[in-house]
Amino acid sequence: MTDHSKKNKADGIVVIGAGAAGLMAACAASDNGAAVTVLEKTEKAGKKIYITGKGRCNLTNACDLQEFWGHVVTNPKFLYSAVYGFDPQQMMQFMEENGCRVKVERGERVFPVSDHASDVTKALLSHLSGKNVKIRYHCPVSHIMTDVRDGRQYVTGVKLRSGEEVPARAVILATGGKSYPSTGSEGDGYKMASELGIRVIRPRPSLVSLRTREAWCGELQGLSLKNVELTVEEIPGSENPKDPAAG
Questions:
Q1: How many domains does the chain have?
Q2: Inside any domain, residue 40
Q3: Which domain, by its residues, includes 61?
Q4: What is the tens place of the pLDDT at every residue in 49-79?
Q5: Which DSSP string do the residues of the chain spell out, in sequence order?
Q6: Neighbours of 55 (CB within 10 A)
Q7: How confident is the model at residue 84 (pLDDT cuts 50, 70, 90)?
Q8: Average pLDDT, rounded, for the chain
Q9: pLDDT tens, residue by residue, 157-207
Q10: How far apart are CA 97 and CA 214, in angstroms?
Q11: In CATH, what number is assigned to the domain containing residue 171?
């Protein structure tokens, strides 16, 4: 949501969230000459990056794009503009140029050569260094501020939970979902979007743990296997295991 009114003196862009999406958004905005303020609620940037891919960060996939579309379950056309605007090869080049050497492994998965996810975050922060970008930590946002003029709603900035107001001509909402509260992903973005009248589709679990009645499954915790396929039959809700001690 952008304010094109001359009455708004704020000329900067605010990005809410310093995760992978927020940092990439800041890179793109600053590369196009914008002054950017990134507001992060936790104490550091890229908290989920550090734990993704078992701490190695599978940052993209080098497969052919036609093959890639075949693996998108729902509406691949939705991703066309984003992927063709910045494809996997460009992502790999971006990482290399910012100090993170990459390698391609089984399944065309791309990882840092170091096998350290932290190098991905360092590359993003390296790209932002020296640009007109300010990252503020411990700055949780309460809501996005708007104004109504001539029957239209315009963004004017954001308000922090501390009460401080940060003016902006545009706001990029990059808070992540609500799947990992300890990393800061508590669903704040859904609330902010809803307050602006944006329809939010109810999130559903995707990458989840499986619970079984058999206790021996718990002994396999931490074991990783390659090329394994699992088929789960539809089970009536009454038959689902509910014992917390289940495997």
A1: 1
A2: yes
A3: 13-195
A4: 999 988 999 999 999 998 999 888 888 999 9
A5: -B---TT-----EEEE--SHHHHHHHHHHHHTT--EEEE-SSSSS-HHHHHTTTTT---EE-S-HHHHHHT--S-GGGGHHHHHHS-HHHHHHHHHHTT--EEEEGGGEEEETT--THHHHHHHHHHHTTSSEEEESS--EEEEEEEEETTEEEEEEEEETTS-EEE-SEEEE----SSBGGGTBSSHHHHHHHHTT---PPP---S-----S-GGGGGGTT---SS---------GGGS---TT--
A6: 12
A7: very high
A8: 88
A9: 999 999 999 999 999 999 998 888 888 888 999 999 999 999 999 888 777
A10: 50
A11: 3.50.50.60
Q: What is the pLDDT of residue 178?
A: 87
CA distances from 68 to 20, 73, 93, 105, 230 (A): 21, 10, 19, 16, 21
Three-state helix/strand/coil letters over 197-221:
CCCCCCCCCCCCCCCCCCHHHHHHC
Cβ atoms of 185 and 179 within 8 Å: the answer is yes
Residues 107-113 have a mean pLDDT of 96
Domain assignment present for residue 213? The answer is no
Cα–Cα distance, 15 to 232 (Å, whole number):
40
> Is residue 114's pLDDT more than 80?
yes
Could you identify the residue written with the tokens 């990482």?
95
Higher pLDDT, 19 or 211: 19
